[in-house]
Write a structure and sequence with these properties.
Blueprint lengths: L1 E7 L4 E7 L4 E8 L6
Antiparallel strand pairs: 1-2, 2-3
GO molecular function: ATP binding; kinase activity; phosphotransferase activity, carboxyl group as acceptor
Organism: Candidatus Bacteroides merdigallinarum
Protein name: Butyrate kinase
Length: 37
């Protein structure tokens, strides 16, 4: 089973994709400074 975790802050979004069968992180990343000038 794969689980996608999202963390949405006031000006950023971060994510991690977990493979629960193998107890491993498949992908991770984020976007920062959303809506900032």
């Amino acid at each position: 089973m794969k689980v996608l975790v999202l963390n949405c802050g006031s000006s950023s979004i971060k994510y991690k994709l977990f493979d629960m069968d193998h107890k491993a992180v498949i992908a991770q990343g984020g976007i920062e400074k959303i809506g900032l000038k």
